[in-house]
Task: inverse folding
């Protein structure tokens, strides 16, 4: 009877050490950046630069997303954006195993000129997704492309808004 009781007590601990709990998937690479060019926008280069800078500040709502370079005379803003983090899925399992960290960054390059803007979004590195067989949590290439396209649409809407004049 003691053997069965000991096995029942040890089973959860042994299961938490299972190396197959998270299987790394194949590397995901997005070779080409998502690039969108918008013309006939209201505003001068200076006004569009301010709007683009304001968009980045309002979109980069995480301390890990930063503007790394900006040049108003050239109309250039370049930043690093936290595209995905598994922190919303991060959980400590019962016996100490947890999901591996996954943070995916993208380089956002914005160029503005009179009445024109171009945005380019490219994930910085390839990544491997980690799939949990119990929860099915991972970030796919399709989700990344969808998120990058949503950022581009949000950028366009922001540029088309009327600027507030004081």
Result:
């Amino acid at each position: 009877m003691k053997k069965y009781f000991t096995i029942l007590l040890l089973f959860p601990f042994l299961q938490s050490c299972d190396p197959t709990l998270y299987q790394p998937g194949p590397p995901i690479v997005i070779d080409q950046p998502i690039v969108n060019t918008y013309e006939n926008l209201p505003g001068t280069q200076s006004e569009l630069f301010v709007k683009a800078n304001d968009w980045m500040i309002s979109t980069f709502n995480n301390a890990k997303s930063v503007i790394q370079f900006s040049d108003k005379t050239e109309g250039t803003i370049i930043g690093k954006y936290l595209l995905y983090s598994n922190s919303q899925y991060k959980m400590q399992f019962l016996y100490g195993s947890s999901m591996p960290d996954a943070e995916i960054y993208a380089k956002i390059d914005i160029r503005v000129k009179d009445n024109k803007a171009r945005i380019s979004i490219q994930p910085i590195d390839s990544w491997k997704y980690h799939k949990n067989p119990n929860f099915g949590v991972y970030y796919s290439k399709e989700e990344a492309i969808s998120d990058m396209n949503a950022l581009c649409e949000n950028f366009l809407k922001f540029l088309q808004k009327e600027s507030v004049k004081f």
About this structure: The chain has one domain: 31-160. Confidence is low (pLDDT under 50) at residues 92-97. The radius of gyration is 22 Å.
